[in-house]
Design a protein that fits this description.
Number of strands: 11
GO molecular function: dynein intermediate chain binding; dynein light intermediate chain binding
Distance between the termini: 151 Å
Largest sheet: 5 strands, antiparallel
Shape: flat
Pfam family, one: DHC_N1
Number of helices: 49
Protein name: Dynein heavy chain 5, axonemal
Strand order of the largest sheet: 1-5-4-2-3
Amino acid sequence: MSFAKHSAGGGPDPQSPSTNDLFYERRESVIYANPTAAKPVPGGRRRSTVSSVLTTETIKERQQKAKDQREVRRMCMTAAHKYIIKLVANHIGLDQGAVEEFILDSERHMQLFSSFLDKDGVRSLKFYYQESVMPSIDDCGRTIHGVAKGTVMMRVLVTSGTGDKLRGSCVYFLRTNTDINITSKNMESEIFFGYLDMNQNSGILSAFESVLASVYLPPMKAYSRWGELEESPQGRKTKKHFIDNFDNFLMYLRSAQANSGEGVRLAKNTSEKVNLKEIKTVSDCIPISSNPDIVADMEDLASTWCKQIEQILAESDQMRKEADDTGPLAELEHWRQLMARFNALLEQIKSHECRIVINILNVARSKVLRKWRDLDKRITDNANEAKDNVKFLYTLEKYCEPLYHCDPISMIDCLPGLINAIRMIHSISRYYNTSERMTSLFIKVTNQMVTACKTYINGDGMTRLWEQPRQPLIEKLQHCVSLYKNYQAIFQRTKEKIEATPGEKPFEFSEMYIFGKFETFCRRLDKIISLLNYIESFSSLSDCKIEGMDAFASRFGQIYGSIKKKPYDILDQRKTDFDGDFEDFLRQMRDLEVNIQNFMDVCFQKTPSAFQALQLLNRFEKLNIPRLNVQHKYKAILLQFEQELEDIKKLYTKHKDDPPIVRNVPPISGKIMWVRQLAEKIQEPMMIFAEQTTCMKTDDARRIIKKYNRIAKLLLEYEILYHLAWKDSVDVATRYLQVPVLVRYPQTTSGMLLVNFDPYIFEVIKESEYMIKLNLEIPEAAKVLVHSKDKLKAHFSQMKLLLDEDKDLRMGIPPIFLALLGPSLKRVDSAIRPGLISHTWTSLSLPIYFTQVKEALAELKIIVKQISDIKTTRIDYMLKEISETLLCDLPERNPWGVTEFLQKMEAYTDQMAMDINKMSQVVEDAVKELVRIFLHRAQLEQGMLLESEASTDRSETISVSTKLSSITESDAAPVSEDNDISDEQQIREACDELKEFFNQRLVESLLKATRHSLDVMRRRFFSGGRRSSILHFDENMGGINDGSRMPFFIADITLAIPNVVMQPSLEDIQTALNKATQLVLDISKGVYQWGQDREKQHGTVIHHESRRNSPTMLHGFGQDMHNLIKHIDVPLKHYHKSIVDNKDVSKYVMMMSSALSTLKPEVTDALQRYSDYSFLWKQDRVEAVKEFMVEEPILSEFKAKCLMFKNLENNIDDIQTSEIVGPIELFTDPLKFALRVEIKAWKLMFGKELNQQYRAKMEGVLNFVDDYTKRLARPIRDLEDVREAMSALNDIRENQIALDMQLGPIEESYAMLNDFEVVVKKEETDMVDSLRYSFQKLLTSAVLPWCVLGIEARMVEDSLVLTLSGTIER
């Protein structure tokens, strides 16, 4: 069952179909049920016959026409049709195309479909999906493969709901507004639809009930925007009444569906001997009753009916098994079902078939009739009883409905009517007024009340008991108890009225049965109320912040948690486990109360003061826990308070002259605050005691009150006394404002300025502020001071800030600039001077004075910043760069050769000279800029600048003025006005000193760079460490030694027969070092002194560069360059002499000039290690080979020689590629190459001798093989030939072993020639390779002739015998 809503409108209100529509649907239904019938046509006419149709058109034409009509219907499909078809397909589980094809099967389907979408069309549309007869192609215009005409299959039918009976599933669509056409745009807001499935429900009523219960009812209950119905009690009652009626309607549908299935069908006549439908009257029964077989069949049928009726009666008389919570409406439902069952049975008994059977048996006087009449009477009585009971119970329905839908408060109002209705039934009813039934009815009413109370308490089952707020829950429980009391009271009043009314049947019912369950339930509720009250009282423990109470809160939580975790329903009065658990809960809570009381006593013993004890008692009192005995504690604390009064009095007496004051609080206010604090210590507890009227009526309380009043009066007098004394001292502070704002401190020689502001002024202001906070009166003068507080603070802060700024500026001026900034400093002094004389703290001109001082300081600050920036960025930075510049280029990872080192050093030093000279010029320009600024400030810029430049040109030596060195920090003081030397003369002298100072710093930077560069070179040469960077070095280390020996130079070890030498030699390397040192020193020649012509310096640089170039390059510059060189022949002054004459530099130069003197022994030892190979070039190779060959060496001796040379070569290969000796890395590759050449020459001479010796042996073997091969190849003709062949074979056998022993040494000797690196001709190599093969071939040819020669010898012998025999015979 599903439902989807497309509008927010009301429920379905389908329009009733017209008579014509109903006629069409019924006619179509008849046609589909009978395929042979003619299909209806518009206008209500029928086709005459099939034969008449065939006379006008053929079958093919009809089919084609049906197909065309189908296509026309398809063309009428719109997007709205498609959307509805999609919804239908989704709900019935078919493809959208299949649903569309079923709808196109009938013109009527499309008419209803389109009418639903058109304006003023039908309001409802249904789509049935159920079994139906498939129409023919003549009717629908299509055929389905495998489905014949008239086949029953599952189809989709479009109907208004009146033509076909629903047997399957249905998708219905409803619309409430027919004033517009339905389109795809407004469809979602104009229609809504639902789904009914008869296959999942037992009937149509069940299907509708399921839709209403699952789709409509939950939203209505959850809906909260009911408009005006929510604004008034009557509206809310109306809404509730509507929802209750809706629930009742659903219950009625369920009941009606259940009652529709209660009927029992009597057995049908299965006898084929008689047709009961053909028997119309009693006279027709007479002849049939004479047939014993028919009568017997009828008796069997009647007996079957009797058994069915007896079963029904037995079931109705059985005791009903009802639940404990069965309500009164269940009684009405029971009798309603019985009435429906008996009425259905009576209708069948009164049917024609049943009467005919009874008449036949009556005519035949069957014995079954007696039993039948008895059962008929019982059925009639039971039916009357059920009808009568239902009639009276219906009067109870409206009084019982509140028991199902209202809360206990509302039920009380309907109880009188309910009791009166039961009283009426008890008085009037014929069947239901028995004591048992009336008691059962009252019990059901009580059951429903108890059930309603449980539902009310649990919030319709949505929340558990422990999850609800406790106070509203207690009220709910009390309402339930009140319902029980009113119920019992109304019952008793009604009972008394009945007893007082004569003739009325009294209420003789068991009240224990009626009220026992409700009374037990109410006793359970009383216990729950008591339990909740305990929980409500002790729940404050969890929020209590008293230290140590968390243990009791935890214990209470455990007790509360144990009762909450019980598995049974606490509202179920039948669960007696709760009673025992409730008693345990009460016992544990009483123990908890005792423990809390003991804890409270311990806490009060630890409180140091009465006020803290009162606060603690107040916190315990807020817990609202019974039996804590709070009033007794108040009396005990009151006695403690009396002792505190005595202590306060003693404390006042001890500290009244010099009380303890809070930090940062002025003295008078501090004393008043102290005395007020004492007063508060006694006042706050007394205010709390005053609220406890019971405690303050005792004699002790009266005594304590008198003591309190005396002490309070004493403290108040102390406060007033000091306040009046302070008011008289305020006038002193106003006189301190009439002094000058500045004063010169006399103890300092420089006359340091101070802010002349008395701190007592701020003290009076602070006292006034605290007096205001303490709600005390202050004089008008104090009010003026408080009002001027911010202004005075601002003036004081501003004056102090200006003095600090002046001091910082003077301290920040370098001593060298003090004399040059004299005029600017005097202007600042002039601006500050009025503060020493005329300006006081009440002067109105102070802001103007501050502005003038600010402007003077700002001007000075600009000048100081300007000269400081120039000094820092253009002078100090450049001098630092010069001092940190590395003046030598040294190898880093790989050592250099001597030539490479000198080339790189020359290029590097030339570049460094140019760079340092440029940096020197930058410093010179910056100094000139400073001089220009100072002269401009002194109004002497133009004249002084020219004179300064002239004096600079005349300067030839560099010295530091003794006057500059005598400048100290004391010069930072203000310049004296009484100075004999004029300002102009001071500026000129200071400018000269400035130039000389920075010139000397340039020389020091050059010295530092040169000294450290030589030190880096020395360290790099001796220690092998790497330098940290290319252009800079570490000022502290000079070089970095990473622990690994890194060589400086590279050299080769070569063989210069008869010695092993190093190239380049140590002398060459020392010369290169000396030249490199001189290059470093010569850098200072390229740094020219200040004040010389820059163009000449540039020309000199070009000249130095051109000297390193070829004359052709110089010639390329032309005549202008020659003139320039001629012009720059005038020598320029530089700093070379100052650098060279320095002692440290000279020391480094001497160290570098003797750097390699200590390396000669190490180098000699390194070269001496290769003397083991000296025999290779010292011994005569020709003589050595001759001596060896004289001894006629065998092959093994040659092999020993070859092995010796191989070992020498291996030893040479094992020699290290390089060896580090001090700062020099010696490479052995040239030496190793020379040794290999010598060894190769030795090997070649021995190899040639070996080749010559074994080539002769090889030629002898080859000659022997060739000779005997030819001798064996001769043909055998006579015995002489045989003897020759035999002789040859004999020689081969004799020489075979000797020859075979020679083959191996020959082959091995030629293989050894490769080791001796002797080149052998290819023909000779081929002879060696074929030597053994030729010898083996000779041996093979020598075996076969032995046999051949034997045979031929016998043949020759036989022929000779025959010849001799013939000769003899003749």
